[in-house]
Design a protein that fits this description.
With 188 residues, the chain is mainly alpha-helical. The chain has ten helices and two strands, in the order αααααααββααα. A two-stranded antiparallel ribbon has the order 1-2. Helix 6 runs antiparallel to helix 7. The radius of gyration is 21 Å and the shape is globular.
Length: 188
């Protein structure tokens, strides 16, 4: 195998629509990752004097870390779905919302506390574990699956079409209804 053959095969892989969507979707969250990493480093410097100084502010400074690193998969679902929708010329917003719901159904099992436990009030809590890096593979699958289902419905013309004069946003919402049912039922 010569260099040209290898280069040609690698070019074909690099131009794959799914890999391109994943690459572009992950690139969108780079600022979020860098900001979250900055706060992670800030909170975990291995200097005793720094740890003592930062301790009173640790819970406040961990907020940006939780909303960036701990929710990375949530952002990836939306950005990868949106990127793949552009390839197919589909509505990125409604499809991304469906992909997010699919991800939440598959990756997050709500915890219900019926009595006060460890300082937590009774209620329903969503654990963050699978919303971060642990949930990235599920996020990628949900994004691709949701776009392909929506694409299938559009290709087969199995969507609800609204009459002229209906606002575009409302029409797009109804167009996403039928594929949305399939995405949610399959995810459930």
């Amino acid at each position: 195998m010569n260099f040209d053959t290898i280069s040609e095969k690698m070019g074909a892989v690099a131009n794959n629509r799914y890999l391109t969507a994943i690459r572009d979707g992950m690139a969108v969250i780079i600022p979020v990752s860098i900001i979250g990493s900055f706060f992670t480093i800030l909170l975990n410097l291995p200097i005793d004097a720094w740890k003592a100084f930062i301790q009173p502010y640790a819970s406040m400074l961990s907020i940006p870390m939780y909303y960036s690193i701990s929710l990375m998969a949530v952002y990836c679902v939306f950005s990868i779905t949106s990127s793949l929708c552009k390839f197919y010329d589909l509505d990125p917003v409604s499809t991304s919302v469906l992909a997010e719901m699919s991800f939440f159904i598959l990756a997050i099992v709500p915890n219900v506390l019926s009595a006060k436990t460890a300082g937590m009030e009774p209620g329903t809590y969503l654990p963050l574990a699978n919303m971060g890096a642990q949930g990235l593979f599920t996020a990628i699958l949900c994004a691709i699956f949701s776009v392909e289902v929506v694409r299938f419905f559009y290709k087969k013309n199995l969507i609800i079409k609204m009459p002229e004069g209906v606002p575009s946003a409302v029409g797009k919402s109804f167009s996403a209804l039928m594929p949305g049912v399939v995405i949610i039922v399959v995810s459930f």
